């Protein structure tokens, strides 16, 4: 069996070369440092789930390559059910952590996209990218690797193509091709879960032409590869991570900038090197499945917000029945993004390589919902929770523990039948989910909603719909 434990996963991270920075500090151990240990904990819970009798069927699967039992996030998705399980796993991970676990998400999608595209490239050019990827996948399944996915470049001036940027490093590119590999340089930004990853998948972030063929690069690198510097981005409540106590949960996510400084990638880890014709396919396949499944992410966190809101009502001394309309609307929002995503998967089809890809127009429609409905869910959570959640007036854990006035604070914070500490913990959770570092990238995570609308517009057969209306109305002109 190719299943590993939480302990083995954490040890694999401890063995990696330190190359992650935050607030100007080199983090020597991502598993224990306050800025990164929470995202490691979040991902570790995915490994725990593989050994949970209630969750193991969702979190493990049989490998299409070996027939062995593997972690599902290491597997190929060749059937509609495989992609639906991707959605279900994402929603469940939010139930377990309350936050994004990007290392169990984007890299999983990337390897499936490259399984299809490498097959296409090999057929036209006689390359051997597909076999290289297969060999890497066998290793990933055996080792239970967590793979982050790096799609977005810094991009620079949005009005210019990569080759015309005044700052060349604004986009990742091939600097040199060697007999044994390639040299890459440039920045990938806003990459999720890197601190908790063993490997990083690199994909082009746009559809390129011949003038930009050096930017048509897809590969996978160890997170600690020589020449890569990782800078963790700052979120509003990050400094709270350095404090003890329950002001934030023991889970979390990190976002990072990846700075590639003439990094050598050996051939066996390269799956596209200049075949610009296929960059559009990468974007199309990736966005279809990612935007279908991301609806499950916001649904999962919405489920936690719904629970937090209901418990806060009780902790405030009220019955949650008073807020039944609001709670129901939260549930409707959650089920909308989840079910539209599943619908996109069900309407999809199998690629000749065997990978299942979702229906584009429905998937991108889901992204528009993902960029709107969760904010309404967050607002309702704040509304039910009251000012203790949203106004920023709740004293800190350190104040509540203060010998001089802590007991006084806890005494006046008690409202309902539960303890003051329980009320504070739930208020902090709701604050974290709706205002703080627990907020996933609803608006731009997985791509901008305006980009999704462009795809919906392109796939909508407007003239065909006009014909329906004309025929029914009996219009002949």
TrEMBL record:
Keywords: FAD, Flavoprotein, Oxidoreductase. The keyword NAD does not apply. The keyword Cytoplasm does not apply. Residues 280-474 form the HpaB/PvcC/4-BUDH C-terminal domain. One of its GO terms (molecular function) is oxidoreductase activity, acting on the CH-CH group of donors. InterPro entries: Acyl-CoA_Oxase/DH_mid-dom_sf, AcylCo_DH-like_C, AcylCoA_DH/oxidase_NM_dom_sf, HpaB/PvcC/4-BUDH, HpaB/PvcC/4-BUDH_C, HpaB/PvcC/4-BUDH_N. Residues 5-272 form the HpaB/PvcC/4-BUDH N-terminal domain. It comes from Thermanaerosceptrum fracticalcis. This is 4-hydroxyphenylacetate 3-hydroxylase. It comes from the Bacteria.
């Amino acid at each position: 069996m190719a299943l590993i434990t939480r302990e083995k996963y954490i040890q694999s991270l401890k063995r990696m070369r330190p190359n992650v920075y935050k607030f100007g500090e080199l983090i020597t151990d991502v598993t224990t440092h306050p800025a990164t240990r929470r995202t490691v904990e979040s991902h570790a819970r995915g490994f725990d789930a593989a050994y949970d009798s209630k969750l193991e069927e969702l979190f493990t699967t049989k490998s299409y390559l070996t027939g062995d039992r593997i972690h599902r996030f290491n597997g190929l998705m060749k059937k509609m059910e495989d992609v639906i399980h991707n959605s279900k796993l994402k929603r469940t991970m939010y139930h377990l952590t309350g936050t994004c676990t990007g290392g169990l998400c984007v890299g999983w999608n990337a390897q499936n996209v490259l399984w299809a595209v490498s097959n296409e490239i090999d057929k036209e050019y006689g390359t051997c990218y597909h076999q290289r990827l297969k060999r890497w996948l066998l290793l990933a399944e055996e080792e239970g690797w967590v793979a982050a996915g790096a799609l977005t470049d810094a991009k620079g001036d949005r009005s210019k193509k990569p080759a015309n940027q005044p700052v060349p490093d604004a986009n990742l590119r091939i600097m040199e091709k060697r007999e044994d590999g390639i040299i890459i340089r440039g920045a990938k930004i806003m990459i999720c879960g890197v601190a908790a990853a063993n490997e990083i998948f690199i994909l082009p972030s746009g559809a390129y032409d011949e003038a930009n063929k050096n930017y048509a690069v897809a590969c996978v690198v160890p997170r600690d590869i020589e020449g890569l510097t990782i800078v963790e981005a700052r979120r509003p409540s990050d400094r709270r991570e350095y404090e003890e106590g329950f002001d934030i949960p023991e889970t979390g996510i990190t976002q990072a900038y990846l700075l590639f400084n003439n990094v050598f990638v050996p051939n066996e880890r390269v799956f596209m090197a200049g075949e610009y014709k296929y960059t559009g396919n990468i974007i199309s396949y990736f966005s279809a499945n990612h935007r279908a499944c991301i609806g499950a992410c916001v649904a999962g966190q919405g489920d936690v917000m719904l629970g937090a809101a209901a418990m806060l009502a009780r902790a405030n001394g009220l019955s949650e029945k008073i807020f039944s309309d609001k709670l129901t609307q939260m549930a409707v929002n959650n089920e909308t993004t989840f079910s539209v995503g599943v619908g996109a998967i069900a309407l999809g089809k199998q690629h000749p390589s065997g990978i299942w890809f979702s229906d584009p127009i429905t998937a991108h429609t889901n992204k528009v919902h993902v960029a709107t409905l969760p904010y309404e869910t967050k607002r309702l959570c704040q509304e039910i929770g009251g000012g203790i959640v949203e106004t920023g007036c709740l004293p800190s854990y350190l104040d509540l523990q203060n010998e001089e006035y802590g007991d006084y604070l806890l005494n006046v914070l008690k409202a309902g039948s539960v303890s003051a500490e329980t009320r504070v913990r739930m208020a902090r959770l709701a604050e974290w989910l709706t205002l703080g570092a627990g907020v996933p990238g609803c608006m731009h995570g997985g791509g901008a909603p305006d980009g999704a609308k462009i795809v919906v517009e392109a796939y909508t057969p407007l003239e065909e719909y006009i014909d329906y209306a004309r025929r029914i109305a009996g219009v002949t002109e």
